[in-house]
Amino acid sequence: MTTAQRHDGIRIKLGRMGRQTGLLLSAPDGYGEAFIPREALPDLRRRLARAQANIEARP
Fold first, then answer.
1. Nearest of 52, 19, 55 to residue 35 by alpha carbon
2. What is the pLDDT of residues 5-46, one digit of tens each?
3. Inter-CA distances, 19 with 16, 22, 38, 39, Å
4. Closest CA to 23 of 46, 41, 50, 48
5. Cα(41)–Cα(24) distance, rounded to whole angstroms?
6. SS3 36
7. In the chain, where are the structural domains located?
8. Residue 24 pairs with which residues in a beta bridge?
9. Are 27 and 33 in contact (CB under 8 A)?
């Protein structure tokens, strides 16, 4: 495992859930957690890039 990194208040670290490896996301207050499996990361990267482009295109 790697050490956690903070991005806008979200802790991101590489971890495992069961047999899957992926990203573990957690809120700094400990109330929200999410796991994104490694297989989903390419799709997530595309979706985030598209969302960022849409935000930047707004006046």
1. 19
2. 555 688 889 999 999 999 999 988 878 899 999 999 999 999
3. 7, 10, 11, 13
4. 41
5. 12
6. strand
7. 11-57
8. 13, 35
9. yes
Q: Tell me, what's the pLDDT at 10? A: 86
Beta sheet of 20-26, edge-to-edge order: 5-7, 10-17, 20-26, 33-37
Calpha distance 28→8 (Å, rounded): 10
Residue type at position 47: R
Return the pLDDT at 45.
93
Query: What residue type is 38 in one-letter code?
Result: R
Supply the Cα-derived Rg of the chain in whole angstroms: 13
Measured CA angle at 9 (ends 34, 1), to 5 deg: 55
